[in-house]
Amino acid sequence: MTEAAPTPGSIGQQLKVLGAEVVLSLESVDDKTALEALRVEVLGKKGKLTKILRGLAGVAPEERPKIGHAANEVKAAVERAIEDKAKLLDQAERQARLDRPQLDVTLPAFGQPHGHLHPLAATMKEVCDTLCGLGFSIAEGPEVEDEYHNFEALNIPQNHPARDMQDTFFVDGGRVLRTHTSPVQIRAMESQQPPLMIIAPGAVYRHDDDVTHSPMFHQVEGLMVDRHVTFRHLKGVLTAFLHRLFGEDVSVRFRPSYFPFTEPSAEVDIACVICGGDGSGAAGACRVCKGTGWLEILGSGMVHPAVFEHVGYDPEVYTGFAFGIGVERVAMLKHGIDDIRLFFANDLRFIQQF
Ligand code: PHE
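A: This is the predicted complex of the input protein with phenylalanine.
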């Protein structure tokens, strides 16, 4: 059985059906991709229109122009319909874009979470910045120190009771974890000649552990050496320093004390930052200054001549003063913290409050 020869009528019919089909399909097309697929399906090289026109071969030659004409009309109509639909889709898309909520460039940007200095690092920086503002420069020394620099050269000979006072951690080979930053005084003087104005910030270690003592804590040492440096310089510099650190109104007092490496020596107090100096607290005596109204804040004194002898400075020519301040103590007083261990527990609930 061979296929029935196509008649012009049946081809014309097929073209009509195709045209109607396209109109129907276009109704459900709602994006450009689907529209392009439809175009290829109908007008493409292997599309439905081509397939229909293949039947033209079996049509009598005189009938062909008529069918060809009809085919061109259908093709043009389909192309137009697709083009119109494309325009409609473009328009709808533009409208949708306009209807979408607009970008508000005045809204605040999303914040980038960022860290901040640990309260001790911030206090250390404040202490150092203040002293640098008074003319000191920063010097450094090792935390694992030899006994000579930590004790001997500071006029603390072997068997001196002051060695017990310091609760030393001993390392092998006659070395210790430095018990204070004072050995940096020695190292600075060994390596340079007066005049000298240095501070030495850093960690120090003592075998001690309770609410106000940590086995590792921080000090900032200060040393000024020149001809004619007197106790008045010590008082003037330290008073200016403490006023900048705790406020211009805070009272400062110098109290006689003893350190092997300074003579005379003085401990320096400031009026209690908690009770304001009157010594009373909510339940009787102030908890922080224990009712005295004063807080010990640093140790100081005029450099002992024996120390100058050790570093080869002539004590007949040069004089100087030195001081040491505890950084944890300053941070505790500034922020009203009563347990030093909070600084080292790394509890973010604590640290994030600063
Ligand atoms: N080094 C002493 C201490 O740790 C402090 C101090 C330093 C005292 C300098 C006087 C002069 O307690």
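The mean pLDDT is 91. The chain has two domains: 8-99, 119-351.
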